[in-house]
Amino acid sequence: PGIDLTTLGLNLNAPDNLYPTFLSPWADGPCRPQDIDYHVPTEYLTN
Amino acid sequence: PLGPQPLNEEHKREIRMQESAFNHVPQPSDSERLRLYMPRNPYQTAQHFPQVPPPHSDTVEFFQRLSTETLFYIFYYMEGTKAQYMAAKALKKQSWRFHTKYMMWFQRHEEPKTITDEYEQGTYIFFDYEKWGQRKKEGFTFEYRYLE
Amino acid sequence: IDDPPGLREKADALLREWVHMYHQPAAGRDSTKAFSNFVQHMHQQGILKTDDLITRFFRLCTEMSVDMTYKLMSEHGSQHQPLPISVKTKCFQRLDAFVRLIALLVKHSGDEANMVTKVNLLNKVLGIVAGVMMQDHELRDVSFQQLPYHRIFIMLFMELNSPERILENINYQVLCAFFNVFHVMRPSRAPGFAFAWLELISHRVFIGRMLAITPNQQGWPMYAQLLIDLFRYMAPFLRNADLKKSTLLLYRGALRVLLIMLHDFPELLCDYHYAFCDVVPPNCIQMRNLILSAFPRNMRLPDPFTPNLKIEMLQEINHAPKCQINYAGAIQPSSFKKDLDSYLLNRAPVSFLSEMRSTLQQPCPELGTRYNISLMNALVLYVGSQAINHIYSRNLSPNMSAIAHSAHMDIFQNLAVALDTEGRYIFLNAMANHLRYPNSHTHYFSSALLYLFAEANTEAIQEQITRVLLERLIVNRPHPWGLLITFIELIKNPSFKFWQHSFVHCAPEIEKLFESVAKSCS
């Protein structure tokens, strides 16, 4: 009977695109904001 | 009505190689820049702990409801990520400004009195780099310094 | 082979020096300061003198970076356990430095406006890394480790997609370069890299570049090819449905990627459904339904259970779906295609029909089927398309009356009547693969299946048509719209006398299932 595709961790009813927060083909959940590399302004790179 | 399709030698080799690769499937963090001070350490927590982020946790509105200390923590610990960017946006909505020369956040007071050509009266987040280096040892806190 | 004497040592020393410089705070933002110093050293060592030397330098550095990774892994981790984070971090610190060097050399090779040298160097480097990987994959066999290659490819892709003006001029060429190397390293060529490969092609930045940011859908054919590479590789293991854990992981990963496509880029699945269904095994019913359920985002699907739904009244029902694949080219041999065209034109000679069946027989039956499934798929779509054009040329709509008594329907009826159970299953599947969103193909093939049911001369044909539709309905969602409206018509329209067939009552649960569908219709 296949798989209940709603259990694969993707919010299929989301109004926005899913790919920007797609974490991995093996992950059961989306990216969190701290997972996403972002081109922040240079001065934010305080470290 | 299609009968089983026997695997040929090539398929058997493929499945053998795939089975071996199955032992070291890439982790999501293998595709991210190294974060030396916040390494991604996938850790299986107790099942009753929330395993996925709360809904809408990647919106500025969510970040705006976080405490100022939390936003500073995110800003300095999660450098170079979308979380840092969202924390900065939320801080600005809480009327904080980022002093690019001293890399400090400050909050302007109602009637700011100019102190020097670089500083004005306000609340500054003093970011103690020395402590930053020792944060593992001592309890690391953000210090607010009210600069006269 | 025949590296100039001392080149390896020179490359080793330079790479060590670069890694050290890369990690210094003085390296500057994006290592630009370190790079301008380092390039002088490369000049002094004569590495940049000729293309050949640069190529050798990159190969040697790749080999050394990979060897270092294996060495760290062997010291700290076991072959068959995930690596501790600390070991990975050590490996990545070296690999990321090497990637940064590659990215800087690509960005600054030739003068700023000269994109050709940059793209050529990138293609060369990617080819070198792939070459080292394929050789490593062969030599180490089950001891092969994907880690260093996965890291090099993903970090280099991210570096070369940073928002920089130099790079923005070559974004499309960079994308093509990575597509080519990923296609070269497809899982059937490097099964030990299969998981890393799927991770790479489904990375959010790669999907974004391929399918969303690159204008005019220029990346879509490339991405469709990568999905075909994935399905082709998995097909033999999915076909037998005895999924090992590793195959199940890859299968679930593929489903997630398809769900992303269905949700974000449904038109990609619409335009390439034929090519995808040509390689997805017939028993992967849910995966195939997922592909066939896609419909254009600007389309509103009427509820298939709407009472008295008249599909020919739908505006889109007469629009031909886009199909990006040259399926007619798959009708081989060309003599067969010529006879086919002649039969379609003249509805003669009758002998063609028996010739057609023998042509469809697979020359090598050990593939688990005695039929050439790809040829069947192409034949059905070609004949169906010709039929639709013929019907529209007579200002008719492809409904039950318009499709009858034609050369096209002769062919379909002959296949339905003359093929054995296996052959007819493949034929009916080829037909059912066009039951999708409202378009002229859905309309025609839905009518054609119902017509074959109504005109069948044995109940076995009717039972098999029902089975082919039913097996697509009883799996978990999603279900294609065209499949639902066809099945509803079959069980609702009294002219098909559906409920009088013995196979409808062959088992209580089957009967209950039909009744539940019938109830949803009413």
What's the SSE blueprint?
The complex is a heterotrimer of chains A (47), B (148) and C (522).
Chain A: no helix or strand
Chain B: H1 9-21, H2 60-64, H3 68-77, H4 82-93, E1 96-99, E2 104-108, E3 122-126, H5 129-134, E4 143-147
Antiparallel strand pairs in B: 1-2, 2-3, 3-4
Helix pairs in contact in B: 3-4
Chain C: H1 7-22, H2 32-44, H3 51-76, H4 85-107, H5 115-140, H6 147-159, H7 165-168, H8 171-184, H9 194-201, H10 204-213, H11 220-239, H12 245-264, H13 266-279, H14 285-292, H15 334-346, H16 351-360, H17 373-393, H18 407-418, H19 421-432, H20 440-455, H21 459-473, H22 481-492, H23 508-521
Helix pairs in contact in C: 1-2, 1-3, 1-4, 3-4, 3-5, 4-5, 4-6, 5-8, 8-11, 11-12, 11-13, 12-13, 17-18, 17-19, 17-20, 18-19, 19-21, 20-22, 21-22
Family (chain C): Belongs to the CNOT1 family.
Keywords (chain C): Cytoplasm, Nucleus, Repressor, RNA-mediated gene silencing, Transcription, Transcription regulation, Translation regulation
Domain CCR4-Not complex component Not1 C-terminal (chain C): 157-518
Describe the protein in words:
The complex is a heterotrimer of chains A (47), B (148) and C (522). Chain A is mostly loops and 47 residues long. In chain A, 0% of the residues lie in helices and 0% in strands. Chain B has helices at 9-21, 60-64, 68-77, 82-93, 129-134; strands at 96-99, 104-108, 122-126, 143-147. Chain B is elongated. In chain B, helix 3 (68-77) runs antiparallel to helix 4 (82-93). The termini of chain B are far apart. Chain B contains five helices and four strands, in the order H-H-H-H-E-E-E-H-E. In chain B, 31% of the residues lie in helices and 13% in strands. Chain C has 522 residues and is mostly helical. In chain C, helix 17 (373-393) packs across helix 20 (440-455). Chain C has helices spanning 7-22, 32-44, 51-76, 85-107, 115-140, 147-159, 165-168, 171-184, 194-201, 204-213, 220-239, 245-264, 266-279, 285-292, 334-346, 351-360, 373-393, 407-418, 421-432, 440-455, 459-473, 481-492, 508-521. Chain C is built from 23 helices and no strands. The chains are: A little secondary structure (47), B alpha+beta (148), C mainly alpha (522). Chains in contact: A-B, A-C, B-C. Chains B and C meet through helix 1 of B and helix 4, helix 6, helix 9, helix 11 and helix 12 of C.
